[in-house]
Amino acid sequence: MSAATTLPRLLDGADPHGGAPLGAHLDHHGLETLDVDAAWLVREVERAGLHGRGGAGFPTATKLEVVGHGRRRAVVVANGSEGEPASAKDALLLAQAPHLVLDGLQLAAAATRAGDAILCIKHGARDAQAAVARALGERAASGRDAVYVRVVAVPDGYVSGEESALTHLLNGGRAVPTTVPPRPFEKGVDGRPTLIQNVETLAHVALIARYGADWYRALGTAAEPGTALVTLGGAVERPGVREIALGTPLAALVAHGGGDLARARGVLVGGYFGTWLDAVAARSATLDGGSLRPLGASLGCGVVAVLPDDACPVAETARIAAWLADQSAGQCGPCVFGLAAIADALASVADGRAARDLAAASRAGARRARPVGGRRGKRFEDPLARVRRWCGDVAGRGACRHPDGAVRLVASALRTFEADFEDHLRHGPCSACARPSALPLPRFDGRPLEAVA
Amino acid sequence: MTVLAASTSVTWTLTRASGAVSLLLLTAAFALGIADVARWRSRTWPRFAVDALHRNLALLALAFVGVHVLTTIFDKFVSIGLVSAFVPFSNSYKMLWLSLGAIAFDLFLALIVTSMLRRRIGLRLWRAVHWAAYACWPVALLHAVGTGTDATRPWMLAIALGSSAVVAAAVVARLAHSGFGPRTGALTR
Amino acid sequence: MSRGDLRVRVDPIACTAHGLCAELLPERVRLDDWGYPIVDDRPLPPELVAHAKRAAAACPTLALLLPPADGQRARSVPPPGRGRAGAASR
Fold first, then answer.
1. B119 touches chain A (CB under 8 A)
2. Mutation site, B40, B41, B48, B117, interface C, largest C CB count within 10 A
3. Residue C53 within a domain
4. pLDDT in tens, B125-142
5. Would you call B187 and A329 a contact, using CB atoms and an 8 Å cutoff?
6. What is the CATH code for A227-308?
7. Which of A98, A108, A169, A264 would suit a FRET pair with A352, their CA atoms being 20 to 30 Å apart?
8. Are C51 and C24 in contact (CB under 8 A)?
9. Tell me, what's the ipTM?
């Protein structure tokens, strides 16, 4: 039995060939029994300072506490739907260390006195599904699980794994967000208090139950202890999923993956709902909230994607914005129309239409007007100013946080690459615009996503 | 009440008059309802005005229909009881045309009651029942034309034809314009 | 937050941009470029409560809500014209 005092922890004993079997898992982490005292576990998770790894970063102990004290018998859901295309950590964790996640799921069920457990896996993650099926078979044979685990495949889609969308799916509806309140932790699956936790978070819970909060805090920073899985992508030689201690310098991660920040235009941190950092900020940033928040960023779901210096940030942003607009569930006006309008405006800047309009307007003598409200403003309005205005209008007005994330990405691109955007606005596309995209933007038509790992 | 019941010509006059007015009000409410769902507005007619007028005219129509039904019941010339106001084919007096009146009345009550309880019954049920408006108005018109003893009088013909023209115009306009408001076609549900 | 605090909220999924709320409660609702309501969710002063209730009752899709400050579902509001204007929470 190893008490991993250094990295790897989650990936210690992970087996890329079908997932670590139960015997090997017990050898490595040796959590003999999952029958733990609920109050003790919640206290330990709280002492450890564990926060969710799905993107929102909510304190896990608080969630366990609230769901456990609901009026009806709770349901625990392990969320491995991983709708973020640039992230591959959840699929990898389930494929290589399924028992760790399943232990965490049982422990969460014990901590919340839940009567049902559900594991949600992305529809296209075949390796993960196979490994989980095998692992559940082993656990059934050995009688390790107190609560039966139902496995549900989640359809492709950026918002399918959102809390209310997942709950809606599990209640027999489509995987699209619903209006909250009430939130799933109050009234979720079958109207019962529902704990929805990312699979990586549950894996951390399993390790905390085995080794304790002090061990967990031995790595990471004081404010943000522990380790996290990140997906490194973009212009690096060895893309893929890695486990880091929180507080690791971003530059070190990139170097480990064979990338070079000196030749990067910028780094996307968090996911497609995250934030662009310029190369200078990226060079001094560390992977924890304390360093990222002042830069307007957060670790999110652990995506770190390097944009090479021969790529065009304007074209890339326009592509991502169009993709995000397309991924809207299509239920809320501000999201449907706002994101589409933002994407269209950015596309016009990237492909030169905006430059032509601007030239025509200057020739006609129109002043570069300040933004005018309404669709039929006759004076020429700077498309970038319009996009900034729309970003402000759209945020917070959807049923879920999808438009907020999309707007965050676009606004950070306008800030970080302001010079590039102004240049494209005046002069049209640059030589790098036509390059193929450095970032994955899958069309969800039922085929599995390209694996980054 | 006894005085009214004894004087048959008064109640009979009231019945026919309130019936005619009901038809006019129902026509107006129906046409405004079509304009409402088509999101029609103008510089002097904001959306809330079209909507509020639709609702208020419907309530006013209900009041006149109430008078129409009560005066019919209390009239001594024909023996139409309370039951026949709600249950079709329960009275032999001009059975078909009277029954149409009962049906229209039932539908109208369903429209009004579900609208008043809209918040409680939820939007889907309310909307499903509200489609009955497209049945209620033609049935009411047929009742007016078939039952009314004034059916051949010029003023009644004018009311019937005029009402039909208004409703036809509203329906055609609705089909032709597919909505005046913002494009909501991209929204899925 | 006092118990009587009322705020205006929009259910973004139910809303289909009819725009009656902006006409009836312009003090708290304005429309964006696509006709959808942008709501000022500050607490309603007593003189606006009746207007807000009317706007909520007038919404064709019941998307305008007046939930109490503790975040529960909206109570059912009386239909307009009941003559209780001005007798709002103190």
1. no
2. B48
3. yes
4. 999 999 999 999 999 999
5. no
6. 3.10.20.600
7. A264
8. yes
9. 0.85
Distance from B181 to chain A by nearest Cα, in Å? 13
Question: Which one is predicted more confidently, A450 or B99?
Answer: B99
What mean pLDDT is predicted for residues C2-19?
A: 87
> Which residues form the domain of C43?
9-65
Asked if residue B32 has pLDDT above 80, the reply is yes
Query: Whose structure tokens read 């007619």?
Result: B45
Average pLDDT over residues A294-318: 94
The answer to whether residue C89 sits within a structural domain is no
Domain-by-domain residue ranges, chain A? 22-217, 227-308, 313-427
Nearest CA to A75 out of A173, A152, A176 is that of A152
Cα–Cα distance for residue pair B141/B151, rounded to 1 Å: 11
Q: What is the pLDDT of residues B136-186, one digit of tens each?
A: 999 999 999 988 676 778 888 899 999 999 999 999 998 887 655 555 545
The pTM for the full model equals 0.87
Instruction: Domain of residue B21: give its range.
Output: 2-177
Residue B10 lies in a domain: yes
Distance CA A217, CA B139 (A): 77
Alpha-helical runs (H) found in A212-312: 213-217, 250-256, 279-284, 289-292
Residue pair A114/A75 in contact by the 8 Å Cβ criterion:
yes
Cross-chain residue pair A336–B186, CB shorter than 8 Å: yes
pLDDT in tens, A344-399: 999 999 999 999 988 888 887 655 554 444 444 456 678 999 999 999 999 999 99
The answer to whether B184 contacts chain A (CB < 8 Å) is yes
Note whether residue C22 is domain-resident: yes
pLDDT in tens, A248-260: 999 999 999 999 9
Q: Which helix (H) or strand (E) holds A422?
A: helix A418-427
Closest CA relative to residue A299, chosen from A247, A346, A348, A334: A247
Cα A341 to chain centroid distance, Å, stands at 24
Are C38 and A178 within 8 A, CB to CB? no
Task: Report chain C's mean pLDDT, rounded to a whole number.
Answer: 78
Distance from CA of C54 to the nearest CA of A (A): 22
Q: Report yes or no: A84 and A272 within 8 Å, Cβ to Cβ.
A: yes
Q: What is the CATH number of the domain that holds C41?
A: 3.30.70.20
C19 contacts in chain A (CB < 8 Å): none
**Rounded to an integer, what distance in angstroms lies between the CA atom of residue A402 and that of residue A413?**
17
Q: Is C61 domain-assigned?
A: yes
The number of domains in chain C is: 1
pLDDT tens figures, B101-124: 999 999 999 999 999 999 999 999
- How far away is chain A from the Cα of B45, in angstroms, using its nearest Cα? 20
> Nearest-CA neighbor of A25 among A16, A12, A7?
A12
Please state which CATH number belongs to domain A22-217: 3.40.50.11540
Mean pLDDT of chain A: 90
Report how far Cα B4 is from the mean position of its chain's Cα atoms: 26
